[in-house]
Design the sequence.
């Protein structure tokens, strides 16, 4: 099985400037607008089937909703509340496939749900639900269990069981690294298969000329204007899909409604690497999710009209109040304990004629996806979706693009996603044994971490170490990223701003406070390793960056244009 981090094809030119040059004045089979999970998986799937693919995003890859998830790969247990059995089945099948395809990146994880007086369901009924969930998921996870308050306290002493009626334990899965890096791995896969992709490129205008779409593009870093043509356009602009369709004069049966979700990252709360689940005072599920030596608390579900909506004081107070009421902490959490924040809008799918959205019950809307196409205009629109469902989206797009007349292979195999073979991994670990790499931040062998991050490209890190063994140490004292990784990242990962690396290609900016990173003795060395002569400018931009909804240096107050991802 091939890997979205690597393929057997030559790497070729993958620096951003080279990619923009290759896109300029080219004709594509398919051009994808939006580099979140839907756009990235579309590029990987279609290039893996032989299509000539282009991809751009107005910001960084996975720079919006796809970098603000819970990092969970799950079947949507909560969707059983609304009897969405088919959706849950589809997501469970997708979860099972993802666990099998990504054995080092996606791992099963236990959920422990403590049900107190705010739970809408008694423990026995919830327990029956977990059994049904386990069955719908083809029994691929550990059997669930019904737990007494005493058992919950024994398993996780931090849970305050004074008002808990009982609980349940079941399994799903999570990403070992961050969601945005997983998204970028699909972009990497597409590049390796001959696709062209560039971040920080906006679509200024799209027009139909004879049988092709002509896209007028702009490099937002240099202000360079250029043009590309394509047979088919895929609108994968996530929360901005409707605006792009309007700009292109394309009517659809579905549209997007926004629901804001936030996460707060705090020092580690649980004793084990499991997810703690609770119902908040509004009877919505929220979680404590492990992230190395931190815990991620969330998420909220707030109606909003603004795709750039940020974390408010009210959001913080609510999440902290909810978790403090359900954990037995020596000292309640305060805002001073917040290390970082994640916020994003969920693009929820509704019918175009849904009417007034004020009356929507947001907890009843699922993260299902819908894909529409127009045979005449040759436009495909992807609405909604989530990380767990990405393989399904890719496979549907293969069929749809073929239907629109692009000559691609539609053979049913898995060669466009998944990790390299176990034999290849073992060969790398054997080669890495010549170096004393130690362990990563979580205490795992660093060699295994390098393989998980880079796949076959991890050999390039070893090549750097052979040239200079001193690069086997971390550049930042607050991070486990080796100095030997920086040349590989700089050459192959299109990092334009420090935030691209710190928050999306890695999760350093989620694990450490911004001021801690900026004051780190290795901060300047890190920037120099990534940007060379441009390091000083990037450092200054990072120091001036204020937290905003998507954590992007290049975010503007109005990103409703067609190219927002």
Sequence:
């Amino acid at each position: 099985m091939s890997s979205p981090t690597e393929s057997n094809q030559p790497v070729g030119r993958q620096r951003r400037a080279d990619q923009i040059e290759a896109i300029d004045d080219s004709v594509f089979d398919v051009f994808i607008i939006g580099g979140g999970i839907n756009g990235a998986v579309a590029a990987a799937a279609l290039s893996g089937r032989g299509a000539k693919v282009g991809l751009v995003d107005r910001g960084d890859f996975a720079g919006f909703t796809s970098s603000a998830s819970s990092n969970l790969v799950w079947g949507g247990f909560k969707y059983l509340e609304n009897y969405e059995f088919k959706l849950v089945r589809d997501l469970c099948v997708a979860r099972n496939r993802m666990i099998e395809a990504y054995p080092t990146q996606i791992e099963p994880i236990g959920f422990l749900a403590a049900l107190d007086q705010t739970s809408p369901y008694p423990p026995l009924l919830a327990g029956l639900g977990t059994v049904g969930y386990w069955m719908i998921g083809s029994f691929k996870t550990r059997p669930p269990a019904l737990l007494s308050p005493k058992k919950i306290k024994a398993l996780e002493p931090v849970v305050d069981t004074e008002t808990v009626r009982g609980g349940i334990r079941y399994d799903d899965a999570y990403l070992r690294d961050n969601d945005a890096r997983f998204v970028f791995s699909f972009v990497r896969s597409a590049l390796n298969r001959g696709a062209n992709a560039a971040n920080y490129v906006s679509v200024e205008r799209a027009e139909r000329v004879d049988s092709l779409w002509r896209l007028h593009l702009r490099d937002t870093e240099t202000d360079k204007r250029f043009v590309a043509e394509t047979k088919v356009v895929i609108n994968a602009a996530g929360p901005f899909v409707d605006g792009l369709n309007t700009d292109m004069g394309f009517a659809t049966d579905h549209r997007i409604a926004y629901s804001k979700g936030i996460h707060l990252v705090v020092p580690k709360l649980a004793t084990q690497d499991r997810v703690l689940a609770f119902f908040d005072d509004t009877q919505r599920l929220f979680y404590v999710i492990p992230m190395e030596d931190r815990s991620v608390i969330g998420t909220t579900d707030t109606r909003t009209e603004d795709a750039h909506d940020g974390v408010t004081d009210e959001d913080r107070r609510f999440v902290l109040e909810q978790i403090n009421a359900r954990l037995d902490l020596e000292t309640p959490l305060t805002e001073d304990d917040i290390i970082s924040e994640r916020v994003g809008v969920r693009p929820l799918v509704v019918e175009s004629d849904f009417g007034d959205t004020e009356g929507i019950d947001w907890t009843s809307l699922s993260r299902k996806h819908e894909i529409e196409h127009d045979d005449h205009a040759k436009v495909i629109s992807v609405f909604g979706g989530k990380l767990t469902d990405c393989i399904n989206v890719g496979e549907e797009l293969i069929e749809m693009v073929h239907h629109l007349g692009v000559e691609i292979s539609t053979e049913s195999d898995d060669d466009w996603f998944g990790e390299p073979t176990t034999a290849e991994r073992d060969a790398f670990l054997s080669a890495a044994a010549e170096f004393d790499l130690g362990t990563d931040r979580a205490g795992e062998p660093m060699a295994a971490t390098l393989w998980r991050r880079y796949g076959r490209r991890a050999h390039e890190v070893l090549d750097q170490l052979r040239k200079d063994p001193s690069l086997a140490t971390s550049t930042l004292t607050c991070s486990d990223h080796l100095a030997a990784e920086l040349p590989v990242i700089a050459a192959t990962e299109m990092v334009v701003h420090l935030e691209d690396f710190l928050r999306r290609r890695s999760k350093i900016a989620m694990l450490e406070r911004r001021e801690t990173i900026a004051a780190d003795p290795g901060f300047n060395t890190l920037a120099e390793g990534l940007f060379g002569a441009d390091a000083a400018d990037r450092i200054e931009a990072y120091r001036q960056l204020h937290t905003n909804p998507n954590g992007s240096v290049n975010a503007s107050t109005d990103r409703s244009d067609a190219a927002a991802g």
Notes: The chain has three domains: 16-60+182-252+369-403, 67-178+257-352, 422-544. Residues 85-101 form the longest helix (17 residues). Confidence is low (pLDDT under 50) at residues 1-13, 547-565.
